[in-house]
Design a protein that fits this description.
Blueprint: H1 8-15, E1 19-22, E2 34-35, E3 41-42, H2 47-58, E4 62-66, H3 72-81, E5 85-87, H4 93-103, E6 111-115, H5 121-124, E7 129-132, H6 138-141, E8 146-147, H7 156-167, H8 171-178
Parallel strand pairs: 1-4, 1-6, 4-5, 6-7, 7-8
Antiparallel strand pairs: 2-3
């Protein structure tokens, strides 16, 4: 379901988004966890996803990471992107989502959430704009507003960032900054 198939109802929902909350493994990465013989972990992140998040933040949409695992690699990536809020080792993402919204005086209508696995479903069912990456499990795809064309770690986050910017009418500003339109 590409962005060209969005209806006015969905565009109206996306226009309200002020916060993008992302799962990490399987969304910002392809889901693989690589460990060396000493147990050091590495992850592959997509540079285009990263740039999309930076542009989105520049246009006033905050980005927060919420993940079930704990990893210093995620801390480094968040710092590199200028993401100031990450929640790791989260077993109940709904509790964290509610705390995030409460702390920011927002409601679910203001939040977009991107996930890939069943642990994400409680938040996806409440988010103002819910997204599954292309290679998410089928149960997740069944309960979201939008399924990306791209897979997790392979441009899905960039796709969502562009979709939000376009729905909010900000894409022309991005184009002007980079002089491509």
């Amino acid at each position: 379901m590409g962005s060209e198939f969005l209806d006015e109802r969905l565009i109206a929902k996306i226009r309200q988004i002020r916060l993008l909350v992302l799962d990490v493994d399987g969304v910002m990465t392809d889901g693989r966890i690589i460990m060396d013989h000493e147990g050091r972990e590495t992850k592959n992140f997509n540079v285009k996803d990263g740039h999309g998040m930076k542009v989105l933040m520049r246009y006033g949409v905050d980005v927060i990471l919420v993940t079930g695992r704990k990893s210093t690699v995620v801390e480094h990536r968040a710092r590199d992107l200028g993401i100031g809020e990450i929640h790791q080792g989260v077993h109940n993402k709904l509790e964290i989502a509610e705390a995030i919204l409460r702390n920011r005086s927002m409601n679910y209508d203001h939040m977009a959430f991107v996930g890939d696995d069943i642990v994400d479903i409680p938040v996806l069912k409440r988010a103002g704009f819910s997204v599954a990456v292309a290679d998410a499990v089928e149960d997740v795809k069944k309960c979201v507003d939008y399924v990306t064309v791209n897979k997790g770690g392979r441009g899905a986050v960039r796709e969502v960032c562009e979709l939000i910017l376009k729905a909010k009418g900000e894409w022309a500003g991005v184009a002007k900054r980079y002089e491509f339109l």
